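Q: What structure does this chain adopt?
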Amino acid sequence: MSRRIEAGWALLLALGATLASEWKLLSGLTTTVAGDLGDPLYFAWQLAWVGHSVRQDPASLGSSMWTTNTFQQAPDNLAYTDVVLGYLPLAFLTPEGQSGALAQLNLALFLATLGAAIGAYLLARVLGASVAGASLASIGFAFAPWRDTQVIHINILSTGGIALSAALLALGHGWSLRHGWRPERLRAGWVLAGWLVAAWQLTYGFATGIWFAYFLATIMACWTIGWLVAGRRRAGPGRLRRVVGAHLLGGGLFALVAVLLVIPHQRVLAAHPDAQRVEGMLDLFSPPWFGLLTANDANRIWGGSLDLWRADIVRRWPPEMYMSPGILLIGLAVAGVFISSWPLRRRLVLATVTAALAVASTGTRGPAGGRFSYLPLHDHLPGWEHLRTPGRLMIWVTLGLCLLAAGAISRITDALVEEWNQREELRWRGPGAGGYLRGRDPLTRVVIVGLLALPSLGVYTEGLDRTPHWTVTRAPIDLAALDQPILILPSGLVADYHLMFWTTEGWPVVANGDSGFNASGQQLLREQARTFPDVASVSALRERGIRTVVVVRSRTEPTKWPTAADDPVDGLGITRTDRGDAVVFDLAP
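A:
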């Protein structure tokens, strides 16, 4: 099988698996969101805002983009949380407005899964896995059960660039798990390509980007030490100079992208000392050990099982507790410690690192309260203090498990192919090792391929889910036609995400806003508006410069502005216009 044919088949299989798993994203492309009506609507708004800003002014990437139409245009409010810039090209393929915002989000989710599948396949192949082993790594990384829970966080699911950049860097260094160093395969072009993909991956946010930067630093340090010890004498000086140059250029670009992304976040921290995470959040988001083995109740295989563990999890913070990479994948990875195409020392190192990360992912619920696992990293490594969700280390645990499992499947593949071809010519092609059946009848080949595909099929099946897809309601009124700035009530944490999403139609300036931290100014605004409409609230809102208040009847609750739409406004100097579900109050004196 030539590399081109293999690449074509791998791409088709990844696309087919993604379509079969994520077809609901495309069927409700412009009308629904997956998971819930909270965080997904924030990301839909964010993707749409970034696209709108760049379409209006391409130079806004470095300036005006960071101050959005929400939070009453507080400076740099886009940087209040993780910013996903990597999907910007989607903005040029979709229209403006709410339908376009939903299309961008759903397409991004689809591409995130597809990218993870392709990236993991390439990484496993470059490291020496057989086609069957690489296929298992691809399925395990892209369709792990924990991804069903994280479907509300597009920044967390966008992991394809992690695996792809690692694959390109390994290829450029001539290094694989199967063969170790092969200096004659040094290629500066692949090294530079690896850094370019790494820089692109960084634009998906710091929630994965901080860990990714440490991952790159670690593997580069290991490769450098290994090269100095064992490899430098076997490489020509010219080739080595080109590789070093590629590192300097590519690493410099990566650092430049990191700095440019950090600057607006640093401005926010300087302007808002309260932007630091609330005390106790790390404890709240740390999963128990059994959370690493538990899928959510939407999982087709495990949704009706493990109810005892699930009952305990729902009393914590479920979105960050269900972090299972798949029981079958874990079993195959354990087998890969004992039976593998990887040399014993390398697979033991890989298994040890994976196990250590699994322990660290339990945060403060780990052994000794995390004092010897996650907390030293959180307390002493720059950037880690902002990472309040240790369970998301499962990204790296899953990648390690996939590579261990790929080693086991590759060893089985090698044995099967050797057995079936013991009297035939065995032809080897492609990166690393991997045999292809030659000279046998088609039925025999189909049977063997089917047997080798069973583990991947099992891992894929364990990742299937019934994640709900919610229809998103549109604004009951044309907000862009009202006098601005506007405050929409009820306003609250998470609830404002839907109101922010409504502003994708026309981009009116609103005082509403919610993000990665509960800014003191927003807390005060909600407190001042709590008794609206009365003298005190109207006066406070006018002082803030708010000119219009919209009360949405269908969103009011018994404890949140229950009668605000119909309370008398006599003597307040404001006017009220009833437009059905929306009641508009004009505060202009």
